[in-house]
Amino acid sequence: MTTLHDPDFGLMHFDGEWTLERRVPFNGFEVPVKIKPEDTSTLTLSLVQRSAVRLALELPPDILTLAAPAVVQNYEVYRDMLGDEELPPLQVPQDVWKAVQPSYIFVPRHFDVKIPTFLLNAECDWDPEHGLVIRFRNGHADASSQQGELGC
Predict the structure, then answer these.
(1) pLDDT 10s digits, 99-149
(2) Alpha helices in 8-149 (DSSP H)
(3) Which residues contact 30 (CB under 8 A, 6 or more apart)?
(4) What is the largest CA-CA distance in the chain?
């Protein structure tokens, strides 16, 4: 395992992807940040990836309120399929977070994408088999889906 002290992010460990020692508080969890290096031969990060990591590390205190609409949309799709008995209506959008357990933040390779993007991977009560991924672009949640279905 390779270890590096990054001037911006602190201690990072490489084991197929970089993992920051620093964690991000999210929904009561301390969430690790993982980064797939843009250049696999040098293990370096692109400027856009670095921007995405900074955005993930600096999430605003009201992020649960701001990100709720993207997650509620996914919840409502499942609720329509399963019905009220299985998934009750939410009283307020932020209630969706009671059923979400964040696992890690992932910064993918951006290749030609110029918008800093990261993905929050989580477990969710309404789809325990596939989980949930929430995409953040420029620090704002814009979509959620099953894990593996969203990219930059």
Answers:
(1) 999 999 999 999 989 999 999 999 999 999 999 999 999 999 999 998 767
(2) 47-57, 63-82
(3) 23, 24
(4) 52
